[in-house]
## 1
Amino acid sequence: MRSYLTYVCLGIAFIVALACTVAAQEGLQRLPKEFEMSFTATTPEEALQWQNAAREKLFGYVEALCPRKSTEELPLDVKIESTEELEVYTKHRISYMGNEGERKTAILTIPKGKGNGPFPAILALHGHGGNEDAVFDDPKVLYRAFADDFARGGYVVLAPSLEHRDYAGMQLWNLIRLVDILESRPEVDKERLGVGGLSMGGEWTMWLAACDLRLKAAIVSGWMCTTEGCLSVPNCQCWELPGFFTLMDVCEINILLAPRPVVFESSLRDPCFPIHHCRDGFAKIRNGYAVFGAKDVVSQDTWDAGHEWHGELAYPMIDEVLKGNAISVYREKNRR
Ligand SMILES: [Zn+2]
């Protein structure tokens, strides 16, 4: 009986492995021969021009799929639905008006015992299958309660629930509305805003920080890779925004964050993103930052784990940029 089961298990494993290999090969066949707008700038001026042109393209692709509503046309209409007093922070459950005219939910936390602020703030983004609670309640695996860590660390934290859509970029307008909400809060210092997320939350972080310059620092966890790397494993295809797919290598969107500080978390055993492709992607991004004279503010945290949050480089970086006087220090660095 045992040997029969063993053969069945081996057979299933073989079929799964074969299916993955076939899917990966089919994926790689779709790799564009060349990209239309790869980053080739050699001066800060050229790099800035490339960023502006690329951002315009990205806005256009998203707009073609879902038209943007301004907050004048469709006010945020933030409502506090319930409040829970925890030891070190107040936890509000809020609702607000999303870009498509549907009310959406989020958790908003305000630090206690440190006056009324204004505080630095972090947007905390969940991944596939997650929600606003997942980033607070999961201390051991995946998210490691990173939103709770920031809330305890003296940050205003805004953690939304956003649904999976055909393309992750289609949440861009809602993500920008979340930054609008942070800016509108009297407890928040609007000059000290950051964003971080894991998995699809890392991808949303990339899209949002690339397109919204109000964000001063970012943590892209478990979602940074080259296009080749993304296609080499059977990943969800929601990153393949129409039009964008042939525009640039997907890792190059992150050059739109330059010269703002960013940490990329790339674990060694993440099955979604093979580490050598993540290292290739980081090298491209770092070269882009170098053109701005800012390669010191971008780092890659690699450690022995699977698809999960780490925080080892990310927390000190965010503290330095959003809590200290380091913003001016980074600006000084970037001028050189
Ligand atoms: Zn997806």
## 2
Amino acid sequence: MNPQKYINRIQRTIDSYFTKDTVIDALFISHFHNDHILGVTYLAKKCDIKRIILPQLTEAEKLAMFLEDLCDLDYGDSIDEMAKSWQTIFSEKYDRIEVLRDKVNVNDANQEIDLENLQDEIKSGQRVLFHGKWQYIPYNSPVKNVKVKELLDVAKEQCKEIFNGDKISFDELRKYLESDVNRDKLKSAYNDVFKKEKLNETSMTLYSGMLGCNQKCERQCGKAIHYANRYCTLNCLYLGDFEAKMLEYYNGLMEVYEPYFKHIGIIQVPHHGSNNNYNANLYSSSSPDKSSILHRICLVSADSNDEYGHPDEDVLDGIRKEGGIPILVTEFPKTKQVFRIRNE
Ligand SMILES: [Zn+2]
Ligand SMILES: [Zn+2]
């Protein structure tokens, strides 16, 4: 992959949305693949980020993500750019809130927490309130890839230098990677374990929606929904590169988001429309009385000459068959979709 292409495009996109010093109350990171974090350094320079909300990862998972990006990128500026993204996210400057894999329990005292009052960590499925009008519900799936541990063992065996006990020093790792020999050693350790798989199991998801939509939607926009045969486009489910195809992942996701599903009008299609992450159930959209199809907007982050072949044509057809409206959004900033909420 040529990351400069991404970086230029991301910067153009950021410029088309944000003016200098725009305050960003919360930046959610789905996972650490370079196509999801490369813009963060530029964004942090341009805007005033108040806090970063990210999935909690084990050291081994961080190493695996880092190596995966390393194998995907050409060495040189791009590795530096990637390392800078990690540094920005983990810099002292920001409040970081990690989303644990433990799920919020119905008996937990704090079912909802205001964004301003978040501490270092929250449980998966926690409702985070914003200005009493909006809610964010991040979900960090408890099922993870067993190969991560295997990779850690191989890396410990072959590249002892980067370990300090069980902990990896990412500064040491960066220095270690300056040598071609070391880089090849780590790349082959990674490739031996992971082959061509991608570690998307670490991808966090996010529901972003109007507070109290359950009642309000039926009262205020209920008629509009049926009139226009559309779900309420206020509420969005961001899926990052979530492994929706795998049943255990899908079931876990639905446990958390089931109550919100009939109010979700926009779905960000996981993994840029890849068939490996496609699950038709996500898009099935008959009205509650099964009398009509309610259309959902399905945003796909991919352009028409994506080098990985995203999005998959069968995925787009599948979405359309279920009533979804797929929209490709990263061709140019001109293709951006903006859904504004009127502040009354
Ligand atoms: Zn990914
Ligand atoms: Zn991705």
